[in-house]
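FAQ: What does the model actually see?

It sees only this:
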Amino acid sequence: MVSRARIQTVLREVLHLRESTHRTALAFALGVFITFSPPYGFHMAMVIFCSWAFGLNFLALMAGVMVNNPWTLVPVLGLTFWIGARVMGLPDPPPLEWHDLSLMGIYHQITPYAVPFILGGCILSIGGALVSYPAAYYFISRYRRLHKPDRNPPLPRQIR
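And it is asked to produce this:
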């Protein structure tokens, strides 16, 4: 189990990265964008790709992705569909019928939910990134001003 002290240590490392506040906030905002994006199940692959392709910090990306976690998953999924349905002007969706659980039956029942879900996910992704970048930039720069790192950089960790 992850301890509170370990979380604080990782957070301190992210906040004192030797990169600009802009890049750290950008990585966090991209992580928030990824967390609300519709392709559930591929978020981790998207984080790894963005970290590799754009040279962004993996920990800052993961901090943004962790906005959506097991405690927030159901409300986020509901909000995603609700926003998409409202933007599309759809009435309440048809109820799911449990008598036909074949692959085609499930496909036909889920199809009306797909487009509003994708649209809502895109809207939440863009909105979340636009809100999280300035917030992250403000908090990271404020934290760095108040908690100046030591002048002597720490020695690299030993690999055991």
